[in-house]
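For consistency, the fold was encoded as tokens, which produced the following:
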Amino acid sequence: MITCIKTFIKNEEGVTAVEYSVLAVLIISAIVLAMATFSTGLTAAFAAISTKLITPSA
């Protein structure tokens, strides 16, 4: 049992998986932050486009 624990501690393959996970979390956080920042402007833009599409011009 002790040799299994020592082998697990010396194994460095899991480090890359952790690094990729941290990188993925940072990218997702940046995307969520950007969406939260621009959501009000996008909502207004789509509302204006919707109004122009529904209302026929004379």
Notes: The two ends are 83 Å apart (CA to CA). The mean pLDDT is 83. The chain has one domain: 2-54.
